[in-house]
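User: Can you predict the 3D structure for this chain?
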Amino acid sequence: MFGALIRQKNPMKRQIDAAIEPVMRSAAMKKADQILRAVANKDVTLTLLGESGTGKEVFARRAHELSARRRGPFVPINCAGIPEALFESELFGHERGAFTGASERVKGKVEAAERGTLFLDEIGEMPLAMQAKLLRFLENRRYMRVGGAVKIDADVRLMCATLRPLEQDVSSGRFRADLFYRIQGISLQVPPLRERLADIAPLLRELVAQVTARHNLRAPHFTREAKALLLRYDWPGNVRELRNVVESLCLLRDGRSVRARDLPEALRKRAVADAVALPAHGSTSLTLELDDGMDKLVQRIVEATLELEGGNKHATATRLRISPRTVQRYVAAGRVSVRSRRALP
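Assistant: Here is the predicted structure, written as structure tokens:
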């Protein structure tokens, strides 16, 4: 998920020998991966910071697969999705009869992750009472199942992920300071998609391949204009949002072209607004009415950029990240002002 690829050079190798590789054409992702590779094989706590949907779990899985524990399990826990009353049982397991409904012994996530990696996603959302129990476990790597009387040794590596720096939660009293200092190992910032523009095109190809294979569809073709809008959009939902947009487009445009007008309306409007807000080389500004419709908005942007670039359609195309042919089509169709057309070479 999140654009992760599973590559296996030798198909005869077991699946556990395959490395999970996020798409990383961008400088930001390459830098993050350089840090991850340096610490992946060291048995230290790794904390991944980043916005929702950036692929923190993909990075954690990659670190696991690059470590000496890769033959062991990778066990994720979403700390935000477990009711407080069930958290201890989820983490450490329980014995038969430990509470109403406990009809048999159940292993916890710690036991399931033996000789592997335990990944605590959104650790900042862990209840305070559970934080004290986790700290006690980390001090000696021993635990008891709920309702049990025997201490069990655990051999697991801990990885964590959080939306916001844990220092903020410590300051606000939402997170125990002693646990914070206990898990403070290596922190790695996973960059948001808006800082990874070079990754969008390969992510798009990979996600299209995944979606069309899963739904037995023909891959659609994205026009230059559609790709340009995808590049201008700031992707507040990051790779998760991109995946959902791609899935919708693949389902609706099965084997056909995806044009700018086929993109979600909110994406189109925000992408155009963001493009206008970008700082220009000159002092020109442009005000748009988003209710004018996509074609008129693009017309005004092309016209303003032509004027800013002295009528040079190649410079205009470069600035707008579209093809010179697209600019020429607007000129030939009479969609730009006479003043802009006269200046064209």
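Residues 135 and 182 are 7 Å apart (CA to CA). The first strand starts at residue 5 and ends at 7.
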